[in-house]
Write a structure and sequence with these properties.
Layout: H1 11-19, E1 23-28, H2 51-54, H3 64-78, E2 84-89, H4 99-109, E3 115-122, H5 129-139, E4 143-151, H6 155-160, H7 167-178, E5 184-192, H8 199-212, E6 216-221, E7 224-225, H9 229-235, H10 244-256, E8 263-266, E9 277-279, H11 286-300
Parallel strand pairs: 1-2, 2-3, 3-4, 4-5, 5-6, 6-8
Antiparallel strand pairs: 7-9
Bound molecules: iron/sulfur cluster (SF4).
């Protein structure tokens, strides 16, 4: 079997270089809600949103410490050798609440001795300065990522998705985070194949992220989850989903326009099991898609950042 050297910078490798051992993210549900659901920013949430599908292992009824302990046991059973963990506040908006509540949650997430750091998923409109100050306090002592849901740099798409924030708010949130120095690592979440978007639109998002200067990017393919507004649109033929071959081309185009230093947190959305997923039903293991992405970059003779400066 031919072995490919990665032509992009995987987050796992970045963590291993930093900590000397493999580090695995533990998705947690800390009981947050979201301002785009509770009426503060909007109601109904983003058209694709289905939090049960984001973190199927996490259960908000279970205390964070127990969620972490269970995940550590599960991961240790599957992986041999010395490993460590990053606590990931994944479900809903992980900065949405009073400071005391946030502090309690982040402290609990970091309390396990083998948890080396924290990743917090949030929205660009949900990081007031006191919250960034709090996170900065952790980042001076521990490894901390702040992960902003962006999905697209195009305001017309954000509006169609009912995101409830603009690309300008994302730029502003990243700038305010950066003002606090280099301790907080910043990631952006992006979906490829969003309603109404072309491959060129996705490339513009990649170029914007390179220009804004985030440290990492998490890339998903658009998945239609049952019960979402997106499913309603898809069933009426108003939204198309990508084929695996299209996705491989799109994601390679996207990688070619990112900065080579950015870490790639994910290249393909978790392929959901059971009845949650309406489309696309690719029926492929994730490893196969990752392999095809490697091969496509190899075939092109390109790599992450290859087309960043020449457009
Ligand atoms: S911001 Fe996140 S949690 Fe809130 S509705 Fe959108 S996808 Fe769901």
């Amino acid at each position: 079997m031919q072995v490919f050297t990665k032509r992009y910078r995987p987050f796992g490798r970045f963590l291993k270089e930093l900590f000397g051992v493999p580090v695995y993210k533990i998705p947690l549900d800390a009981g947050f809600t979201c301002p785009n659901r509770d009426g503060t920013t909007g109601r109904g949430g983003c058209m694709f949103c289905s939090n049960p599908s984001f973190g199927p292992f996490a259960d908000r009824a279970v205390p964070l410490e127990e969620q972490i302990a269970a995940a550590v046991t599960r991961l240790r059973r599957r992986r041999s050798g010395d490993i460590r963990f990053l606590a990931y506040i994944q479900s809903y908006t992980g900065t949405y609440g009073p400071l005391e509540k946030l502090q309690k949650i982040y402290d609990a997430a970091l309390s396990h001795p083998d948890v080396v750091g924290l990743a917090i998923g949030t929205r660009p409109d949900c990081v007031p300065d006191p919250v960034l100050d709090l996170i900065q306090g952790y980042a001076t002592r521990r490894h901390v990522w702040l992960e902003y849901g962006l999905q697209s740099i195009h305001d017309r798409t954000l509006k169609r998705l009912n995101r409830g924030h603009t690309a300008g708010q994302f730029r502003e949130a990243v700038a305010r985070t950066r003002q606090r120095g280099p301790d907080i690592f910043i990631a952006a979440h992006v979906i490829l194949g969003l309603p109404g978007e072309t491959a060129a639109d996705a490339v513009e998002t990649a170029r914007a992220l390179a220009e804004i200067g985030v440290d990492g990017v998490k890339i998903h393919h658009l998945q239609v989850i049952r019960g979402t507004a997106l499913e309603h649109e898809w069933r009426r033929g108003r939204v198309a989903v990508l084929s695996p071959a299209e996705y491989v081309r799109w994601v390679c185009d996207f990688l070619e326009h990112l900065h080579p230093e950015m870490t790639i947190h994910r290249l393909v959305g978790e392929v959901l099991a059971g009845d949650l997923l309406a489309a696309p039903r690719w029926d492929l293991p994730k490893s196969r898609l990752l392999d095809w992405i490697d091969r496509e970059l190899e075939r092109r003779g390109t790599f992450q950042g290859a087309r960043l400066s020449r457009g």
